[in-house]
Write a structure and sequence with these properties.
With about 280 residues, the protein is an alpha+beta fold. The protein has twelve helices and seven strands. It has a five-stranded mixed sheet with strand order 1-2-5-4-3. Strands 6-7 form a two-stranded antiparallel ribbon. α5 runs antiparallel to α6, α5 runs parallel beside α7 and α8 crosses α9.
Length: about 280
Amino acid sequence: MFQWIGINQKVETQYLLQCQRAEELTSIFKDSGFDSCVLKGISFSQLYPHPARRQGGDIDLWVNGELKDVVEWLKKRCEVEHMVWHHVDAKFFDDVPTEIHYHPCWMYNPFYNHRLQKWFDEQAEVQMEVKEELGFGTPSVTFNAVYSLVHSFHHLIEEGLGLRHIVDYYYILKALPTEERPSVVNLLTKFGLLDLAKAIMWVLKEVCGMSDDYLICEPDEKEGRFLLDEIMRGGNFGHYRKDNRKRNTASRMFALMPHYPSEVLWVVPWKLWHRCWIALH
């Protein structure tokens, strides 16, 4: 029990530090003409009964600006450590790692990704209003109802999905206004995420005991059981996986293919294109 109390205290202390750094980071970008908001982590925490008790990681800041402009500014301001298509690792603080996003996330399927990025662009300005009580911006619940599922899908395909992602979605759905549910389902369908949504609805109902009143679509037991098995076998980033279905393996792709073919089939072409993109940037 004392171990648990100690861990809880560390989580709360880290949360307060992250909020402080997120506020500082928001001001730094604002002073240079860039609006921003915090994704995932402490953004999702605001929906929990006790925000400080959700274990966090780094700060993911979505900056409203062109990739070239953001990266050029970052290279003048701080140490840029790693750059990929949707974000760059930038060292602003010694005590909290930061990722600066010019795209919140992506889909491997180029057709779904085109729709998704267009939607992100349309949403950017409205999501970046700074909340006075926090000192930084967080996206709306409706935005997170879509974005969180995109992020979870990427984890499932690439690395491994954890129960934390499921619990995040539990609190997102608890806060999602009833009248917003049809538009969320419409967007998830548009981005090829409805099958995952149905699987997560089953997991939320069976594992988290979520009432049908909060589910946004009909649960799919078959897909839900497969998803839960993936979660329990590997966890977040697949850290606990002991079989041969680890990251970037053919066996993982073959296992996921029957469930999410439209995305899995594009993984290899996207990775080849991404290597070229990195080489050019």
